Amino acid sequence: MSSTRALDREIARLAFPAFLALVAEPLFLLGDAAVVGHLGTPELAGLGIAGTVVTTVVGLCIFLAYGTTAGVARQIGAGHRDAALAQGLDGLWLAVLIGLPATLVTALAADPLVAVFGASPDVVEPATTYLRVAALGLTPLLLILAGTGVLRGLQDTRTPLVVAVLGNVANLVLNIALVYGAGPVPHLGIAGSALGSVLAQAGMALALVLVVVRAARREGAQLRPDLPGVRAAARAGVPLIVRTLTLRASLLVTTYAVVLTASAGSGSTAVPVATHQLAMTLWGFLAYVLDAIAIAAQAITGRFLGAGDVAGTRAVTGRMVGWGIVSGVVTGLLLAATSPWLGALFTPDEGVRDALVPVLLVAALAQPVAGVVFVLDGVLIGAGDGRYLARAGVVVLAGYAPLVLLTSALGAGLPWLWGVFCVVFMGGRLVTLVRRSRGDAWLVAGA
User: Fold this and answer.
1) Terminal-residue alpha carbon distance, the chain
2) What is the pLDDT of residues 187-207, one digit of tens each?
3) What is the DSSP code (8-state) at residue 226?
């Protein structure tokens, strides 16, 4: 019993601040949606498409956080704090090397990237405007990922929380001021929303980098780029890139299926696309809530395996899965209970509000499954089992993409598309992750 309580305390110590920080992260998009939604439905739909592009680019680089957390935590478990910080600095330099060209490509290719979604003309213009400005925040966003990963690996989830909260407050204030104008600040519309987010993201990145650099100096770690280390970090991230690519591809094909269904009907695609955007934003918000336990799983699993404690890794995994189930039930009940009123927070459009409720009810049913999926995903990432996650992601995507596109071709509405997303995509991930966790191949000890 005392051992169980000790595990619970360890999980809570890392998960609770991570929970608050992860809740704060999607508030960037929720804040943008709340502000932009009152400009009009086309602007909200445009934000949805541009936001999908930005989150796809950033999401593909999530290994900067996850891989860094696992690697740093293993070194901490083995007692090598200087090596841990050196590995963390490699992640920061890699973020810069990826972020600069990503910014240039995204800004220059904004028009074709938005055109891929096939939205109506009233949606294309605000989407392109937002994306061109938001591209400037890509390098700061990648630095935020890498800096957060270093601190999580060091078993510090409180500092990212403080930075996330302050960043969200700044984002909301800047969004309101720049979108609607305030005093000498001009009315910039949807471009102001993107600019406000970029400024807030730059401040957050600077704060996290300074914290990591100071810690590295205390340990005598070299601050200059270590090219072999950066290359090693890049190679280690490849399986996680593939894993993340399959996840992002699944979300993109879902959005594409929604646009296809909407385009087959009469009138503008704005209402169904805007509805899907709000539903996916809320899904992402709850995913971050559930992912707090997964963040703890990454840090604890890496540390336990780095210290050679395989039995402890097994025990804490089982405990965290239990936490994931309970958390999923709670978030599902909350989402279902609040679904009739959530739409009013983001848009005055009655069509979007009415269409949102059944979609959210479908999403609510899948929350317990999501709780288990996110926890086991975090455990395997913390164990450095990226290759299996990559293979499993490809298998799930290969089964999901044809089914959701077929559902769209048959003229099914948003609730049906979300049903396929929850049953086939999330269910497929559940099966592959549970199967792996029951074996021993991922339990590799050592730094």
Assistant:
1) 30
2) 777 878 888 889 999 999 999
3) -
- 22 near 291, Cβ under 8 Å? yes
146 touches 94 (CB < 8 A): yes
Quick one: tokens of 112?
């074709």
pLDDT tens, position by position, 378-425: 889 888 888 999 999 999 999 999 998 888 888 778 888 889 999 999
Strand partners, 185: 182
Query: How would you classify residue 208: left for phi > 0, otherwise alpha for psi between -120 and 50, otherwise beta?
Result: alpha
Structural domain spans, the chain: 2-437
Supply the pTM of this predicted model: 0.76
Question: Who contacts 262 (Cβ-Cβ below 8 Å, separation ≥6)?
Answer: 269, 271, 272, 273
100 Cβ contact partners less than 8 Å away, ≥ 6 residues apart:
139
230: its two tokens: 């950066």
The alpha carbon of residue 248 and the mean position of all alpha carbons in its chain are separated, in whole angstroms, by 10
- Residue 182 phi, psi dihedral angles, 5° rounding: -155, 115
Among residues 205, 212, 200, the alpha carbon closest in space to that of 99 is found at 205
- Whole-angstrom Cα distance, residue 400 to residue 394? 10
What six digits make up the tokens of 367? Answer: 């929350």
